[in-house]
Every structure is written in structure tokens, then in C-alpha cells.
Specification:
single chain; 4 helices
């Protein structure tokens, strides 16, 4: 190897060593050395924005010095690298992430007009007091309605509290309004103003109290609470139990029918108010369509009033409004032009007196043709027209062969088997009472065949047929007269009518043909409040002519014997007042073959069963309203003119 060649290789090695050492002058201070990781310098303008190595540089760079990560400088708006800079920039310095400055109006830090609650205090923009003093919402304030606390303990805070009118409101507490003299029950406890204990020691009704009569509970289990309970004399009363006074003298409407004590018909025959009755002013119905019922109807004088209609219409309402026995056009009052029934008149048949001593008065006296008739005395009639069996042969007037002779007098027995006074067929029945006699001229007393208690014939000629005849109540044949005045074949009250023909006889068991000076068994009213009316009331079968109160059977004792909340006549288990078992039939009310509501219509014939499963009482049509609308003595289902319960007229 030549020396020149050897020195060449040495020179190359030295150059390589020098080149490697010059690329890592970490601690040097020079210009353009991109490797200075922690350099502190003052670069010349040649230090271009690409000097990426100045990681934590402190300098005064040009706007494009992107390497100043945490620089402190006074840059131009485009110095995007100042991450946490403190400066006085223009509004477009988007890089100031946490800047503290005094910007111009266009700076996005203005928060008082953006429609948002930026400080979370519940108040937005102009509602927030912060916006009255600056341009941004800065948090809670010092007033009770802007301090972030529930100052009044109502579980609502600041803007969420209904008592706060604004953020400047310094009280969350409600504004108290005095209400002890406004005539209202403001707290709904039933007591008003001075009657409310709250107003005795304050000025506000604040709710229920602690006494039995102001605690909002039904302490005596009578379905009435506090102020609505008749046992509460005041809100301070500690006992809700009702006073133990007789129900007819305690000044209370015990049965809630609107009538109190003597006003209530129940108190005319008993000592307790028992509920609604049957007069128009006590039946819980709006009978005249004026939207006022019973005691609330100004046209009702009391619970006995049988017309809710105004007096101006009392001559057209088919009701005896003045109780003189004459109704509408039959009453002379209605001929005066006033349109009002006003009471008794001056004639014997309209003066309210029994002028002829026959125990019958005015309209009830068969001798009164009308209210203008001035004589209650019977008109003398010939023996064949007086309704009497003058010769005692069992045949009366035209039924007696004697009256066919033209003499006008009944003279005694005849010659036929049915008028000879003998028991020719030895069946213990004679002549007119013998089932085998069709009339007085019948010459054969032999009885007809067939069941005597279901053949539709008055087999014993006592005036009572089949089930009406007491004989059929205890046997299978009609056997003749009985022992009561209404089944003995005699005109006991000498009014010209015998037994069934006597209007005072309610049935064959009636023990008196005399109506008496006081009679209420034919007025279509439940006068004693026991639920049973007229002939349906057992009292009217005793012969006294008056409904007198409860009886002894389960269906007429005023007690809810089967505990179904329905009593006696109102109980579907009672077929009549003599029923000794109130227990309801197990068959559905509309398919049990029973007239459960006693309106005369049974099961599907009752309109109630067309719209429900239970018979619930009278309806509104003339053939289902419990009244004798056409005055023929028969009511609703019993009236031959009623085709069904929906029939609107008893007259056709």
C-alpha cells in the first residue's frame, strides 16, 4: 500500500467521527439548530416558524411561531399556539381557552342574551340579577330567591318556589291571606269562619283538628262526618255520636228526606224519621219537572203535601190539593177561576162533616153525588132498589124473584131449591150461598164440579171469590159467610152496602164495615210510615180504618232483619206486610217471579228490568206511578186500561 492511499483512509475516518459528534450539541446556543429541546434564546428572524424544537420557549415570536406551547407574549390575533395565554386580544383570538380579558362587545363571553341559564341559578338572562350589573351570569346571589337554598322548607328552591316573584325577592315564605271572615270553608273541614277552631286562635283556616267533630273521620260510623254529623254541636265537640233524643223532637232531619220532626210524615205515626214516603213532597222525585225535589221545592208546604206543582196548576194535576176529597174539576174551588183548590166549602157534601151520621164524610159518602150536593142523607128507594135483602132470603133487589112481580117489595122465600130456605143437597150451604145455585130460580142446589178456590166463581155467594175468600186461605172450597163484619152477609153500618159491596171493607177479614170518623186506608198514602199503603197495610185489615204503625212480622216491624240495608216494604224478600221472612230470593230480581219493588209489575213486565237486573220502584208513566190517575179505584197494573207499565194513560 502506498502512503498516499493510507492517509486517504485516515482522513475519511476522522471526517466520519467529526460528523457524528457535531449532530448532538444539546446544551449549545446557536442559530438554526433544530435539536435544542430546551433552548432559551432570542432567535434572529431567520428562526422561522418551523423551529418546532422550542417546546417550552419564552420569546417574542412572530405570529406564526407555532412552537410556543405555553408562551407568555403579546401576540397578534392569529397566534393559535398560546394555550393558556394572558393577553389583551381582539375578539377573534380563538386560541384563548381560559382567557381573562376585557373584550369588545362581539366577544362570545356575553351570556345575557342567549336564552340559557348559564350559571345554573334558575334565572335566565334579564331575570338574573347578574345581567343587570354586567354582561354575563355569574352564579347565585344573596336574596332568598337566588341563594340556592330551600329557605321556607317547602321542598322547592328559588325560581322553582311558587312564592318567589323574581330573583330579587328576599322571601320564599308564602304570603298569608286572612280568611276568617269571608263566609267560606277555606280548609274544607266543614266549619266556616268563626265556627272553625282555627279562627278562634288565629286568622287562617288551616285544616282539620283533633276533636271527633273536626278530624275528618266518621267516628260514630253513621256515614256522616264532623260538621255534617247531627251529633256534632260544634267543631270542638269531642263526641260525634248523635243525641239520644227521640227522632221526632231533636230538631234534626234524621232520615235526610228534607223534613224535620213534625214536618216529616213519619212523625205523625211514630217516634222516628224513617226515610222517604209516598206523597209527591216526600218521595225523592221531581214530580213537577222544576228541578226541585220535595222539601227543596217551594211549592211543597210540608211532607204531607201531595203536589209539587204550583198552586196555579192545582186544578189540573189530578191531585186533591186541599184534602177535601174532591179533585180538580170535581172541586167547586176550580170553578171560581182561580185555578186553585182552597179547602172545604159550605154544602153538606163539601164541609168536612158527617152530616147524616153514617160515618161517611163528603166525597166518601155514597149519598153524595158531587161536592155541590147539599145532603149527605140517603134517598129513600123502594125495597127492590135499596141494595138490601129486605126479606132475608139471601137474594137482594133484582136478584130476588119477588121483585119481578111488579110489587116493588121482597116478600120472602119462594118454591125453587135455590130460594126455599132449605139445604137440599146437604152440603151445609143454603140457597144463595150454595155453590150449586146460579140464581134464585135455579131448582137444583147440586154443586158444580171443579176446584172451588180457583174457578173464578164466588161459589158460596158471600161476595168474595177464590183467594179473596178466607175459606180458601185455610181450605180448598168456599164454605159461606164468615165471622167478620165484611163477610157476615149483613149491612153492619147500615149504609146500604153489604160486605164486599161496602167501600169500607178492604177485604173479607176486615172486622168493621164502619169507616170511622178518621180513616186513611183509601187515600193512597202510607200514613203510618211503615212502607205499606192502604189495603197492603195489615192495620187496614183490622177494621179500625186507620194505618197505625209497625206490626210484628219481619216485613212490617221496621227492622232490617236480613241485614241487607233494605227494610220491610223496600226489601225484595218481602212479598207483603204479613211475610215473616225478609230473606231475599236467591233468584235474580228480574227472573224470580216476584214483584220485588211492589209496583204491580213483575220481572220483564217491569220497565226496570228492561234497563237493569233489579226492580227499583215506580216509574213516571201513568201505569207505573202508584196513582189512580183516572179515579176508577184501580191503580197501575190493577187498572184494566193499562196494557203494560209503559202505558202513558190509565184512561184509554
Amino acid at each position: 500500500m502506498s502512503w498516499s492511499r493510507a492517509w486517504s483512509w485516515v482522513a475519511i475516518g476522522i471526517a466520519a467521527v467529526l460528523a457524528a459528534g457535531c449532530g448532538d450539541d444539546t446544551g449549545s446556543t446557536d442559530v438554526g439548530d433544530a435539536g435544542d429541546a430546551e433552548r432559551v434564546d432570542g432567535d434572529t428572524p431567520a428562526d422561522t416558524p418551523t423551529d418546532a424544537g422550542d417546546a417550552e420557549e419564552v420569546d417574542a415570536d412572530t405570529p406564526t411561531d407555532a412552537g410556543d406551547a405555553e408562551g407568555v407574549d403579546a401576540d397578534t390575533p392569529t397566534d393559535a399556539g398560546d394555550a393558556e395565554e394572558v393577553d389583551a386580544d381582539t375578539p377573534t383570538d380563538a386560541g384563548d381557552a381560559e382567557e381573562v380579558e376585557g373584550d369588545t362587545p362581539g366577544d362570545v363571553a356575553d351570556t345575557c342574551g342567549d336564552g340559557s341559564d348559564n350559571d345554573g341559578d334558575g334565572w335566565t338572562d334579564a331575570e338574573d340579577p347578574d345581567c343587570a350589573a354586567g354582561v354575563s351570569e355569574a352564579g347565585y346571589g344573596t336574596t332568598e330567591c337566588n341563594d340556592g337554598e330551600d329557605n321556607d322548607g317547602d321542598l322547592t328552591i328559588d325560581s322553582g318556589d311558587p312564592e318567589c316573584t323574581g330573583a330579587d325577592d328576599d322571601s320564599e315564605a308564602p304570603v298569608l291571606t286572612l280568611n276568617c271572615d269571608n263566609g267560606l270553608d277555606d280548609d274544607g273541614d266543614g266549619w266556616t269562619d268563626a265556627d272553625d277552631p282555627d279562627c278562634m286562635d288565629g286568622f287562617l283556616e288551616a285544616g282539620t283538628g283533633r276533636t271527633a267533630c273536626n278530624n275528618g273521620r266518621d267516628d260514630d260510623a253513621d256515614t256522616r262526618i264532623d260538621a255534617a254529623d247531627p251529633g256534632c254541636a260544634s267543631a270542638l265537640d269531642i263526641d260525634e255520636r248523635d243525641a239520644m233524643l227521640p227522632g221526632c223532637s231533636n230538631g234534626l232531619d234524621d232520615d235526610r228526606d228534607g223534613w224535620t220532626d213534625a214536618e216529616d210524615p213519619d212523625c205523625s205515626a211514630g217516634r222516628e224519621e224513617r226515610g222517604f214516603g209516598f206523597t209527591q213532597c216526600n218521595d225523592n222525585r221531581d214530580n213537577d219537572g222544576d228541578r226541585a225535589v220535595d222539601a227543596a221545592d217551594p211549592d211543597c208546604a210540608d211532607g204531607f203535601d201531595n203536589s209539587e206543582a204550583p198552586d196555579a196548576f192545582s186544578c189540573w194535576n189530578r191531585v186533591d190539593d186541599d184534602g177535601d176529597g174532591w179533585t180538580d174539576r170535581a172541586d167547586p174551588d176550580c170553578a171560581t177561576g182561580t185555578g186553585t183548590e182552597s179547602g172545604f166549602g159550605t154544602t153538606q157534601c163539601n164541609d168536612g162533616r158527617d152530616n147524616d151520621g153514617d160515618w161517611q164524610i163528603d166525597a166518601r159518602d155514597p149519598d153524595c153525588d158531587n161536592a155541590r150536593d147539599d145532603s149527605e142523607s140517603p134517598v129513600a128507594v123502594p125495597g127492590c132498589e135499596n141494595g138490601l135483602d129486605d126479606d132475608g132470603d139471601g137474594w137482594i133487589d133484582r136478584a130476588d124473584p119477588d121483585c119481578a112481580t111488579g110489587t116493588g117489595t121482597e116478600t120472602g122465600f119462594g118454591t125453587t131449591q135455590c130460594n126455599d130456605g132449605l139445604d137440599n143437597d146437604r152440603d151445609f150451604f143454603v140457597d144463595s150461598v150454595d155453590p150449586g145455585c146460579t140464581d134464585a130460580l135455579d131448582n137444583d142446589e147440586t154443586d158444580p164440579t171443579g176446584p172451588a178456590c180457583s174457578n173464578g166463581a164466588d161459589d158460596d155467594r158471600d161476595g168474595w171469590t177464590d183467594a179473596e175468600d178466607p175459606d180458601c186461605m185455610w181450605g180448598d172450597a168456599e164454605r159461606g159467610y164468615g165471622w167478620t163484619q165484611c163477610n157476615n152477609g149483613l149491612d153492619d153500618d147500615r149504609d146500604g152496602a153489604t160486605d164486599r159491596a161496602d167501600p169500607d171493607c178492604t177485604d173479607a177479614l176486615d172486622r168493621s164495615e164502619t169507616g170511622g170518623t178518621v180513616t186513611n186506608c183509601t187515600d193512597r198514602l202510607d200514613n203510618d210510615g211503615d212502607g205499606w199503603t192502604d189495603a197492603a197495610d195489615p192495620d187496614c185489615a183490622t177494621g179500625v180504618g186507620r194505618e197505625m204503625g209497625y206490626g210484628w212480622t219481619a216485613c212490617n216491624n221496621g227492622i232490617d232483619d236480613d241485614r241487607d240495608t233494605r227494610v220491610d216494604a223496600a226489601d225484595p224478600g218481602c212479598t207483603d206486610a204479613l211475610d215473616i221472612d225478609e230473606t231475599d230470593s236467591t233468584t235474580a230480581g228480574c227472573s224470580n217471579g216476584v214483584d220485588d219493588d211492589h209496583d204491580g209489575w213483575t220481572d220483564i213486565a217491569d220497565p226496570d228490568c228492561r234497563f237493569g237486573m233489579t226492580e227499583v220502584g215506580y216509574g213516571t208513566t201513568q201505569c207505573n206511578d202508584g196513582r189512580d190517575n183516572d179515579g176508577d179505584g184501580t191503580v197501575d197494573a190493577a187498572d184494566a186500561q193499562c196494557r203494560n207499565a209503559l202505558d202513558t194513560s190509565e184512561r184509554i
